[in-house]
Amino acid sequence: MAKAAQASIYEVLTIDKDGKEVNIQGKTTSFSYYESVLSPNITASLTFMDTGGSIAYDSNYDKQERLGSIYNALPITSGEKVKFRIRNSNLGTLDFERNPLIINSASNLSQTSQQNAVLINLISQSSLTNQNSTVYKKYNGNIGNTVGNIIKEYLGTEQSKVRIDDTSNDYSFTGNSYSPFELIMWLAAKSVPSEGNAGFFFYETRTGFNFRSIDSLISQQPIATYYRSDAFAANIDNNINDFKIISFSISKNQNFLNTLKTGVLNSRNIYFNPKTFEEIEEPFQFTELIKSLGKDAEEPEVDTDISSGKFTRTHFDILDIGTHSPEIDGSDNNDPTLWQAQSTMRYNILFSQVVNIQVPCNINLRAGDTINCNFEIVTQSSKEQGSDDPVQSGKYLIIDLCHHFNPTKSMTSMTLVRDSYGLYSKNS
Q: Average pLDDT in the 243-250 region?
C-alpha cells in the first residue's frame, strides 16, 4: 500500500485557449477541487508560479514575438479551459481531461521582475450553460420527470451522468425566466420521494448531476470507514493506513436553542389561500421524521409547555395554487401543507451534528456519499482505551468535500452531518 497522504501525480494539467495548450504541471503549487450537496456545480482553484519566458505573446498584443509569462502572454482572461488528470495511488483518479473546467477568474497574487504567482478559479461547463439559459416553458406532471427534462433541454447533460430519485408528487409551474439551476433547487424543497420524507438536494459531482432525496442519501451503505486514535495521530507522515482521521473538529453539536428557533421539534405552517381567502393551519412534529443516520432519533426531553404541543416556530406562506392546472390540484402530494413543513424540518434536523475532518486524499469520495467514522473513546481505563466511542462514532453524510493537492502531500477535507447520535440505526 502506498504511503498515506503522499503527493498525487499530475498526469495532465494544461490551459487551453482557442486550441493553444500550455502545460503548467511543473509550475503548479496547489490545486483544490470542491463538491457540495448544497451547490449545483463543482468548482476548483489552483495557483502556479511563472518565471516568464514560457510562451510567446499573442500577436494581437505584441508584434515582437517576445516570450513572457503565461498570465500575460497567453493571456489568461476568463473562459479558457483547464484540462487535468490527477492520480492518487490506489485511491482514485480525478479526470477532467475530456470535460475540462472553465476559468471563471484569474488574478496575479504577486509579481516581481523574475516571477509571478497566479490564482485561477474554475467552474464546470454546466455553470456557463446554466447562466446562458432561461426557462420560460410551462411544466406539468411528476417533479422527478420535470427535473430530468430541464437538465436534458437546457443543460445538455448525458442521461448516463444524471441520477434522479423517484418523486411521488406532481407540480405545475411556469419557468418565469429563471435559470435551470434556480428552478431545480426550487423544486428540490417541494419534492416528496416515493418512500420517505420530503426534502431533496440538487448538486453536481465529478460523475454528473444528482437530484436525491435526503432519506435516500442517508440510507446508503458507507463507502469507507475512517479511524481516529492517538496511535494514528502520532504517526501522521509515516503511517501506511490511508483511512485514518488526521484531524477533526465539531462545529455544531445539537444546538438546542437553534433547534427550537427553527421549529425542528414542534412547528406549524399557516397558509393563505388567495382563491378562497381561507387560512389553513398545518402542525408538524419531530416524531413524523422516520429516517436517521445514527440510532433511532429521539425527541429531546424538554419543558412541559413545549412537549405538550406548544409551537416553537410558525411559518406563514401563500399557497401558489395560481400556477397549478386544474387536473393537478386534486393531488394530495401537491398540497404544500403536506410537504413544506416536512421538508423545512428535514433540512434543519439533518444538520443537528456537524463534524469537520481531514484524511489522506481519497478521490473516490464524493459529496452525497456516506462514510463510517470510528472515534476513539475518551477514558482512563486501560481496558477501554482504543475502543470506539458509541456516541460520536457511526455513519455520517458528506455535505462538503475538498481534495487538496500540493507538491508534498494530498489531503481530503470533509464536512460531515447527521441527525442523531450513535453507532447503529435501522437504516445501517
A: 90
